[in-house]
């Protein structure tokens, strides 16, 4: 048989190379001739990582995270080359495409995490974790876009101390103590204000009795 009809699964695409194709063709279904090669690739794989990083003040920590990353199937208007085509080119020349992409994605996430962490103190990371995460997502996305990849979902867990570096525990205790001190101050002020109100009521009541 000169050709076979290939169909990709719901979360898959085909990457076709060879005769009649300049570089690589991406499609959901296609006839593939015997002198062409075809690979199926998942467009929404999940990557689980536990990145080891160090802050600018040389304090180590772990960042557990789960990313769903795949080729962007609906590129924004004006893009010169479709993201799907970029991704197809990325995997087309590799026999073990999933391993290649897995290593690339994890390398980008780990590298950007370490670079960003090294530019901030541990207290800065702890006090504004949301900012740290957003800056990390933005930078990782810039790097992934070069390969037609897009972050569909990212779930970054709570930062974890490495054994022997209990700084997060210290910061949590410090924040809790500040909160308790603030609560006690507010309670003290409330009691003071209540005492002032009671004294004023007593004074006004005494004046009324005096007039009568």
Provide the fold topology:
Elements: E1 3-7, E2 12-18, E3 25-27, E4 29-33, E5 36-42, E6 46-54, E7 60-71, H1 83-92, H2 97-118, H3 122-127, H4 129-145, E8 149-156, E9 160-161, H5 167-211
Antiparallel strand pairs: 1-4, 2-3, 2-5, 6-7, 7-8, 7-9
Helix pairs in contact: 2-4
Arithmetic mean of pLDDT? 75
Tally of helical segments: 5
The CATH class of the largest domain, by name, is Alpha Beta
Q: What order do the SSEs take from the amino end to the carboxyl end, as H and E? A: EEEEEEEHHHHEEH
Strand content: 25-35%
How far apart lie the N and C ends? 117 Å
The helical percent reads: 40-55%
CATH superfamily of the largest domain: Band 7 domain
- Over the alpha carbons, how many angstroms does the gyration radius reach? 30 Å
CATH structural fold name of the largest domain: Tetrahydropterin Synthase, Chain A
CATH architecture of the largest domain: 2-Layer Sandwich
Contiguous low-pLDDT stretches (5 residues minimum) are: none
Taken together, the total number of domains comes to 3
How would you classify the helix and strand content by structural class? alpha+beta
Main sheet overview = 4 strands, antiparallel
Number of strands: 9
Q: Give the CA-based shape.
A: elongated
Subcellular location: Cell membrane; Membrane, Caveola
Main location: membrane
Membrane topology: Lipid-anchor
Family: Belongs to the band 7/mec-2 family. Flotillin subfamily.
